[in-house]
From TrEMBL:
This is DUF4178 domain-containing protein. It holds the Pfam family DUF4178. The keyword Magnesium does not apply. Residues 471-493 are annotated as: Disordered. The chain crosses the membrane at residues 444-465. InterPro entries: DUF4178. Keywords: Membrane, Transmembrane, Transmembrane helix. It comes from the Bacteria. Residues 65-198, 274-412 form the DUF4178 domain.
Amino acid sequence: MASQRSYTAPCPGCGAPVEFRSAQSTHAVCSFCRSTVVRDGDTLARVGRMAELFDDHSPVQLLARGTWEQRPFTVIGRLQYRSGSGTWTEWNCLFEDGGAAWLAEDNGAYVMAVPATTQREVPRPEHFRIGATTSVNGRSYTVASNEQAALVSAQGELPRLPPLEATFALVELRSADNEVLSVDYGSEPPRLTRGRPVALEELRFTGLREESAKVEKGRQFACPNCGAPVEVRLDDSKSITCRACRSLIDLTQGLGGELRHAEQHEPVEPLIPLGSTGRLQGVHWQVVGYQHRMGTEPDDPDEHFGWDEYLLYNRQRGFCFLVDATDGWSLVKPVTGAPKLSNDMLSATYLGTVYRQQFAYRAETNFVEGEFYWPVERGQVTFNRDYASGGKLLSMEETPRERTWSAGAQVKAATVAAAFGLEKKQELFARSDAGPTTPSGGGGGSGCGTIVLTVLVILVLLAILESCDEDRDGGGGSSGGSSYRGSYGGSHK
């Protein structure tokens, strides 16, 4: 890389070479002794020792090279943060023209962000209320998250380095055209970055970690409840369940830390087994997580309904959700932007399409299985709004700390069954969105097929009624879900 002149000097801690490729870098972490080194001109001083990196199994690594908007760059540093929503990584990227950017994790995907400025003083974090709108440099944003974060580890060279484990406010503003503006109060004045979603394949990376090495190197530990071996496979899992006792285990403290867990005594069997692979919308997905969730109407807390969500993963595309509700199946993906809501919140506009509200309800997670990129918890509660425009779907989930959105479309039940090689169980995938069928001869009479279909409908209705009774008693729902709606969860970090 022939951009700027690099500078190399011995580490004050161990004498190993520490290289600075960017003139903007003031700090570096020695790759041998993990000393935190600060640069002052041509002098290096050791100011401490960096904590051990948690292995996030990301395909990105130091010195990987890519191209963004026709600008070649090299990954030269990494910061690892923790907040109430879990842990995440931001990669320091140096462009050949001397510019800098951050490749940050975002809701199971990535955002490429560059430094930003504002024409007025940045308000204090307490002025940003979740869901409120604000204007920055003439652009409208919605406050998507406002929480406390802390640096837990770092690697490589960096333009700044907040004190280790010292908490600071981090606010995220998102626009209706998929832009995210982050306000980092870990420095004074606050640091702003502006970014947009990006797929790893778009960055044309070279030097990524080999996929085969990642697959062979699963992280393994003993379940804190029963002691059975638990293996972590996802790039950045925040929660996982033990396959032996089904305890839900929190991984946000890292495998070296104390692992909190919650027992689950009422297992629900997913219709699509975990680990299954299927092809939907031209992409090969693997089922890595499953949730059964319950909802209640705001004006009728005694009325319960349930549905199922499958978390799907593809190494290049990230994550999406396959939702199974009694009114049909849908495939949705978390979005970076924040759709624009009407004043009465009964409609939302996203990428030029107006969606109308279908449902508003309180949602609670009551069974979990598999791995998740956010710290999912049993009993986790969100407030949800579902919007639709024809077959296109838009969903909002809100907690006191964060508001997230997902967008997607309905999928035919037969398509889902075929995608996962479950054609022999196709009748179990049928939902109330299925259209009328006619006998094989094409006529309109009441043939055997109609009689069989009628019997199946009656059986399905009886099963749904029985499931609803169980749900009112506090039990889990059926594997097919007992909901006429669905939402799509997940934290941005």
